[in-house]
Design brief:
Layout: E1 8-13, E2 26-28, E3 36-43, E4 59-73, H1 80-84, E5 88-95, E6 102-108, E7 117-124, E8 130-148, E9 154-161, E10 163-165, E11 187-191, E12 194-196, E13 199-207, E14 210-211, E15 227-228, E16 233-241, H2 246-253, E17 256-264, E18 276-286, E19 300-307, E20 317-322
Antiparallel strand pairs: 1-2, 1-7, 3-4, 4-9, 5-6, 6-20, 7-8, 8-9, 8-10, 8-13, 11-12, 11-17, 13-16, 14-15, 16-19, 17-18, 18-19, 18-20
């Protein structure tokens, strides 16, 4: 008999969109279950003698796929699969020198995610039986990376799925061994390559601009793979103690600067190479606001920002250094 503690979330990269992957899955310690089937009801009502209500044979349920998100604390290894088809371009893992450290790079581009996943959630019923729900054709549509004081570094990825089905058997859970999470004590923030020490939180949201309802009059409700159909948006917010006019002046002057969120563990992989998770945004502009004073706390300032395209670099780049030799 299984309990709620036996529930599993697993990813596998698909070779063909919407075709359940046979690749070895990677299981993640997801924080919540947020996948749900999307349906459409088409009802037909017309003049008919003795009609009492909607006729049962005039109501059709159309399955439109599913949507959901997966939230995880970022581990010092094993997160490459989730990042592989998130932003658009991926590279690596590339060995760093002759060490056992390997660097993975993920960056935004003009097309957005072109790969897809099969994601399976094993849900336990009240009788203690695990019921695997398999979501095929999962394409990333958005994400959030956040860091709060007293918390682990968090990654949430939003997905659109071609279909939800319960006929596939449960994947064998496979977790990376000997892992730890990045926490707020590993995190720093740099502006124009200089560390700033007054930030108390960081959050970055990505809307990847993907069209998810590509259906046609083709004898089926099955949709085609999502593709980029609008300009993506990468926005965020940092909270800080009000230390000087420096950041406020960047806001009112419309200054464009480089922003980096860097999480680095203190235990080396080998030599001077450490597990790290870095988000680089080469062209950022603050969009507000004015500092706020208080009688019972330090004066604070909220610093919402937008990431832009500088014409030569990715708008957002994530680098992930670990001992992983493959995604």
């Amino acid at each position: 008999m299984s309990s709620i503690l036996d529930q599993v979330v697993s990813f596998a990269v698909e070779s063909t969109y919407g075709t359940a992957s046979g690749a070895t899955p990677r299981s993640y310690e997801a924080k919540a279950d947020a996948f749900t089937r999307d349906t459409q009801q088409i009802d037909s009502i017309g003049f008919r003698r003795d009609l009492q209500a909607l006729r049962s044979d005039r109501s059709d349920t159309i399955s439109l796929g599913a949507t959901g998100s997966v939230q995880t604390d970022i581990l010092n290894k094993g997160h490459g699969i989730m990042l592989q088809h998130l932003l658009g371009t991926s590279a690596g893992p590339t060995q760093v020198g002759s060490t056992t450290a390997y660097l993975q790079t993920f960056s935004t581009d003009d097309t957005g995610p072109t790969g897809s996943y099969t994601i399976q959630l094993s849900r336990v019923d009240s009788g203690g039986t695990l019921r695997p729900f398999t979501y095929e054709g999962c394409v990333a549509t958005g994400f959030n990376i956040s860091q709060e004081l007293g918390a682990a570094t968090s990654l949430t990825v939003d997905f659109d799925a071609e279909t939800e089905q319960t006929s596939t058997g449960e994947f064998t859970p496979t977790y990376p061994s000997s892992t730890d999470v990045f926490t707020y004590t590993d995190a720093t923030i740099e502006i124009d390559d200089s560390a700033v020490t007054n930030m108390t939180s960081f959050s970055l949201d990505g809307d990847l601009g993907m069209k998810t309802d590509r259906r046609f009059l083709a004898g089926s409700a099955t949709k085609s793979q999502p593709k980029r159909s609008s300009v993506p948006s990468y926005t965020g917010t940092m909270e800080a103690e009000f230390a000087s006019l420096t950041d406020f002046n960047k806001y009112i002057n419309g200054t464009v600067f480089k922003l980096e969120f860097i999480a680095t563990m203190s235990t080396a992989i080998e030599g001077v190479q450490y597990p790290s998770f870095t988000v680089t945004m080469p062209a950022v502009k603050f969009t507000g606001s004015t500092p706020v004073a208080s009688l019972d706390d330090m004066t604070t300032i909220s610093l919402p920002f937008v990431c832009m395209d500088n014409g030569s670099s990715a708008a957002v780049e994530i680098t992930y250094q670990s001992t992983d030799t493959s995604f």
